[in-house]
């Protein structure tokens, strides 16, 4: 797939995720222009504040997950990935557990980590917990996402994209993060495995032979 086409898909995905909070900000500002009731204005200002924070959180996440954040350095501190993931989950019904024995990863592996986290998070449709584990053994990295919730739905298209079973022509904004993860794992000489247990626990694991 041409890089420009895939970039367009990621932009579409980003815009889709930002439409709601940005729209809420715009609607709130329009209401403030006419609303005179003090209590109503306070409620609208609270909505604007929360929507603004949500927008900032999503941008912080997508900057690392999709963009070229980090300047000229080849590696990023794993704590930056944790901050981005916590920003994304802020205000959601999913609690994040983060465990990493690795201090830094290449930019591509950070993208892999965040897109796997995003994909797993979105399966927790009724909330729950997301456990992220990053470990290293010799020259092998393991990125493990474990989602636990009352109901977990991993859409077939997303699953196929994660496993590298989707052609470039079949990729759409909804599956773009999973496709990006599969592309990176291929470049890193690694493998993604998925274990779905009783619809209440989902394990997505990536093993990378070398941190390219």
Description:
The protein has 212 residues and is α+β, with helices and mostly antiparallel strands. The chain has a single domain (3-208), classed as Heat Shock Protein 90 (2-Layer Sandwich), CATH 3.30.565. The protein has helices spanning 3-34, 38-65, 78-89, 107-121, 156-162, 176-187; strands at residues 75-77, 94-100, 104-106, 128-137, 140-148, 190-197, 201-208. A 5-stranded mixed sheet has the order 2-4-5-7-6, with helices on one face.
Query: What is the CATH class name?
Result: Alpha Beta
Mean pLDDT figure: 90
Q: Do you know the CATH architecture?
A: 2-Layer Sandwich
Strand content: 15-25%
Distance between the first and last residues' Cα: 21 Å
In N-to-C order, the SSE pattern is: HHEHEEHEEHHEE
- Total of domains: 1
Largest sheet: 5 strands, mixed
Q: What is the CATH third-level topology name? A: Heat Shock Protein 90
